[in-house]
Design goal:
Strand content: under 5%
Shape: globular
Helix content: 55-70%
Low-confidence stretches: 1-9, 569-576
Number of helices: 19
Structural class: mainly alpha
Oligomer: single chain
Radius of gyration: 25 Å
Distance between the termini: 38 Å
Strand order of the largest sheet: 1-2
Length: about 650
C-alpha cells in the first residue's frame, strides 16, 4: 500500500555554517519554524502590553468623574491599546502561525526567501519597540489608532508621539509587505508534487488571499503616513484645509487600508477554524470549494467598502448607497463560511477537546459581531451609532471574539507539534469558559451603552446618565478576561516543561504538518518531499478503504486504489541523500536595526542646532550598508557551497 513516507534513514544537511546554538541561534536563524515562534512570542508580548492598556482604560471608565488617568494620558493609552492590538498583536500572531505551518502544509522545506523572512521578523520587532519608545520621549501618540487629521497634525498633537506612530508603523509595514511577498512566492512555487490549488489546505488558502490584501492595502497607509510626516516635519499641507489640503483625504487613504486590514486579521483566523473543525468532527470540511473561493470574494469585496466608515462625513446619498450595498454584499461569502462550518460539525463524530471549544466559540462570537456589522452598514443606523460604544462592541466581537478566539484555538491545536508536549486539557477548558463568559460580560453591554449614546474616545462621563452600572460590569469582566489569559500563560509554560510527550499525530489530523518525523519538526521538515493525491493526504494513508472525493461523472474510488494507480503512473522517485538548507546569518538583524536607527535619524535630524549634520541618520545608513554587505557575502557563500 502506498503511503507518505517517514524515512528513518538519516539525511545529510548541507550548510556553509552550522547553527551556533543557544540564544545566538535565534538571532541568526532563517528557519521558518523558529521565525514563526519568534513572531508568536514577540506578538504575544505586545498582546499582553495591549491588554494592560485595556485594563487601565477600564479602570478609568469604571466610575463616573474618575481621575485615575488624566485626559492626555487616557488618549495615549487609548491610542496605543488599539494600535498595539491591530498592528503588533493580532496580525503578527497570525503571521507567526503562517510562518510556521504554511511551508509544512504544502510540503516545502522552508519559505521561498529565508533571509527575507528573517528580515521581516526583525523589522517587526524593532518597529514595535520604536513605537513604544514614544512613552519615554515626550509622550505616546494620542490621536487614536486611525490618526484622523487634523487631530494628528502638529497643531493638535505637538509632541513627537505621532511621529513615532508614523515611523514605527512604517517599519512594521515594510515587514508586512516583505512577509506577504514571501508567502505568495512560497505558496505558488514550493508546493509538493500533486499539491494543486484545489488541494491546498484552507489555512494556506486564506494566508495566500491575505498576502495579496497586504500587498494592495498597505501602500495606501504608507502613502498617508509619509504625507502626514511631511505635514508635521516640513510644513506641507496635504491635510491642512487652510493650505489647500483636505482632512478627508486622510480618511479615504486610511480606510482604503483599514477595512481590508479587518480581513487581513480575520481571514487567517477563518483558515485556522477550517482546519480544526474537520479534525475534531472526523469529517472532511463541508463545501471546500465554497470556503476557498469565498475567501477570494471577501478579499476582492474588502476593497469596495472602505467608505462605510465615513457615512457621517456627508458624502451624499448616492455614495452612501453604493458603499452600503457593498457592506451588505460582503456578508454573503462570510455567511457561506459560517453555514459550511456548522454543516461540518453536523452529524460529526465530535471530540470535545480545547481547540474545538475555542473554534466553536469563534463561530458563535463572530456571528454576533457580523450581525452588528450589518447594522453599521446601513447609513441611517450608522448615523446614530457611529462614534458610540456600539462600534467598540462590534469591533471587539469581530477581532477578539473572532481572531483572538481562533488564535487560542491554534495555540492549543498546534502546541503538540511545535513543542513535542501535550498541554493540560483541564486548564485549557477552564480558560475557555472563563474567557467566553468574561468576554461577553465585558463587551456585550457596550451595545447597550452605544444605543444609550455613550460616545467612544471620552475619558470620563457625568453620573446620573445611566452608564455607571454597565461600565462597572465591563470593568469587572475585563479583569476576569485578563485572568483567563494568565491561565493560558501558566498552562503553556508548565506544559512546555512538564507536559506529557506528544504523539506525532495526537489529533488524527489530515494535513501534512503532522506527517513530519518528529515534534517539533526537523530543520529540513521532510526527509523526502511527499507526493499529494487529495485534499487529505494523511487520511488517505491512514484510512485507505474510505471513498475519496472524485471527479463528477466518474466512479468513486477507494483511497488505496487511487494511490496505487497514481503510483503506477509515476516515474521512479530518486531518494535524496543530502539536503541543502540556507545557513544562519546575522545580516537581516543588522539591516533591521539600521532601519530603526535611520528612523530615529529622520525624527532627530541633527545632533544639535550648532552641528547641522544628520549624524543619527548617517549612522543608520552605515549600519544598513554593513548589513547588506554581510547579507551578500553570506548568500554568495551559500551559492558556492
Amino acid at each position: 500500500m502506498a503511503t507518505l513516507e517517514r524515512i528513518a534513514s538519516p539525511v545529510r544537511i548541507q550548510q556553509t555554517k552550522a547553527d551556533p546554538g543557544g540564544w545566538l541561534s535565534w538571532l541568526t536563524t532563517v528557519d521558518h519554524k523558529k521565525i514563526g515562534i519568534m513572531y508568536l512570542i514577540s506578538a504575544f508580548f505586545f498582546f499582553v502590553l495591549g491588554g494592560i492598556e485595556a485594563l487601565l482604560i477600564r479602570v478609568q471608565l469604571g466610575a463616573p468623574n474618575n481621575t485615575f488617568l488624566s485626559p492626555d494620558t487616557y488618549n495615549q493609552i487609548f491610542t496605543m491599546h488599539a494600535t498595539t492590538m491591530v498592528f503588533l498583536a493580532i496580525m503578527p500572531m497570525l503571521v507567526g502561525f503562517g510562518n510556521y505551518f504554511v511551508p509544512l502544509m504544502i510540503g516545502a522545506r522552508d519559505m521561498a526567501y529565508p533571509r527575507l523572512n528573517a528580515l521581516s521578523i526583525w523589522l517587526f520587532i524593532f518597529g514595535g519597540l520604536m513605537l513604544y519608545v514614544s512613552f519615554i520621549t515626550g509622550g505616546a501618540p494620542g490621536a487614536g489608532w486611525f490618526a484622523y487629521a487634523p487631530l494628528s497634525g502638529k497643531a493638535y498633537s505637538p509632541t513627537t508621539g505621532m511621529d513615532y506612530w508614523v515611523l514605527g508603523l512604517g517599519i512594521t509595514g515594510v515587514a508586512s509587505i516583505a512577509g506577504a511577498l514571501n508567502f505568495i512566492v512560497t505558496t505558488l512555487n514550493l508546493r509538493a508534487p500533486g499539491m494543486t490549488f484545489n488541494r491546498l489546505p484552507l489555512f494556506v488558502w486564506t494566508n495566500l488571499v491575505t498576502s495579496f490584501l497586504i500587498i494592495f492595502a498597505f501602500p495606501s497607509l504608507t502613502v498617508a503616513q509619509v504625507m502626514l510626516f511631511f505635514d508635521r516635519q516640513f510644513g506641507t499641507n496635504f491635510f491642512n484645509p487652510s493650505g489647500g489640503g483636505d482632512p478627508l483625504l486622510w480618511q479615504h487613504l486610511f480606510w482604503f487600508f483599514g477595512h481590508p486590514e479587518v480581513y487581513i486579521m480575520i481571514l487567517p483566523a477563518m483558515g485556522i477554524i477550517s482546519e480544526i473543525l474537520p479534525t475534531f468532527s472526523r469529517k472532511p470540511i463541508f463545501g471546500y470549494a465554497f470556503i476557498a473561493y469565498s475567501s477570494i470574494a471577501i478579499g476582492f469585496l474588502g476593497f469596495t467598502v472602505w467608505a462605510h466608515h465615513m457615512f457621517a462625513t456627508g458624502m451624499g446619498p448616492l455614495i452612501n448607497g453604493f458603499f452600503s450595498a457593498g457592506s451588505f454584499l460582503i456578508g454573503v461569502p462570510t455567511g457561506v463560511k459560517i453555514f459550511n462550518w456548522i454543516a461540518t460539525l453536523y452529524l460529526g463524530n465530535i471530540r470535545m477537546k480545547t481547540p474545538l471549544y475555542f473554534a466553536v466559540g469563534f463561530v458563535a462570537m463572530f456571528i454576533i459581531g457580523g450581525i452588528s456589522g450589518i447594522t453599521l452598514g446601513s447609513p441611517v443606523l450608522d448615523s446614530q451609532q457611529t462614534d458610540t460604544y456600539y462600534v467598540v462592541a462590534h469591533i471587539h466581537y469581530v477581532l477578539f471574539g473572532g481572531s483572538i478566539f481562533a488564535l487560542f484555538a491554534a495555540f492549543y491545536y498546534w502546541f503538540p507539534k511545535m513543542t513535542g508536549r501535550m498541554y493540560n486539557e483541564r486548564l485549557g477548558k477552564m480558560q475557555f469558559w472563563l474567557m467566553l463568559i468574561s468576554f461577553n460580560i465585558t463587551f456585550f453591554p457596550m451595545h447597550i451603552l452605544g444605543i444609550e449614546g455613550m460616545p467612544r474616545r471620552y475619558y470620563t462621563y457625568e453620573p446620573g446618565m445611566g452608564w455607571e452600572i454597565w461600565n462597572l460590569i465591563e470593568t469587572i469582566g475585563a479583569f476576569a478576561l485578563a485572568l483567563s489569559v494568565l491561565i493560558f500563560i501558566w498552562n503553556m509554560l508548565t506544559s512546555i516543561r512538564n507536559g506529557a510527550l506528544a504523539p506525532l499525530d495526537p489529533w488524527d489530523a489530515a494535513t501534512l504538518e503532522w506527517a513530519t518525523t518528529s515534534s517539533p519538526p526537523p530543520a529540513h521538515n521532510f526527509d523526502k518531499i511527499p507526493t499529494i493525491y487529495s485534499r487529505r493526504p494523511l487520511w488517505d494513508t491512514k484510512y485507505p478503504d474510505l471513498e475519496m472525493a472524485h471527479e463528477p461523472g466518474t466512479r468513486p474510488m477507494k483511497r488505496g486504489e487511487m494511490l496505487e494507480q497514481a503510483r503506477a503512473r509515476e516515474t521512479a522517485a530518486v531518494e535524496e541523500s543530502s539536503i541543502h538548507m540556507p545557513s544562519p546569518t546575522i545580516a537581516p538583524m543588522i539591516v533591521s536595526f539600521g532601519v530603526m536607527v535611520a528612523g530615529f535619524g529622520a525624527l532627530y535630524r541633527f545632533i544639535s542646532p550648532d552641528v547641522p549634520v544628520p549624524f543619527v541618520a548617517l549612522v543608520g545608513l552605515a549600519i544598513i550598508a554593513a548589513g547588506i554587505v554581510r547579507w551578500v557575502k553570506d548568500a554568495h557563500a551559500d551559492l558556492l557551497h
